Amino acid sequence: MLDLDKFKDVNDSLGHEAGDHVLIECSKRIKNCIRKNEIAARLGGDEFIIVFLGTTLPEDIDNIGQKLISALAQPYVIQEKNVYCSASIGIAFYPDDATDIDTLLRNADQAMYRAKTRGRNNVDYFTENMRTDFLKRMDIVQDLRVAVAQKQFHLVYQPIVNLQNQQIIKAEALIRWDHPDKGLVSPIDFIPIAEEIGLINEISEWVFNQASQQANFWRNTYSPDLTISINTSPVQFKNKGAQIKSWAESLILQDISCEAISLEITENLLMENQAEIVDTLSEIRQKGIAISIDDFGTGYCSFAYLKNYSIDYLKIDKSFVHAISSESKDAALCEAIIVMAKKLNIEVIAEGIETEQQKQLLLQAGCLFGQGYLLAKPLSIDNFEKLLIEQDT
Ligand code: C2E
Ligand code: MG
Ligand code: MG
Question: pTM for the full model?
Answer without folding.
Answer: 0.78
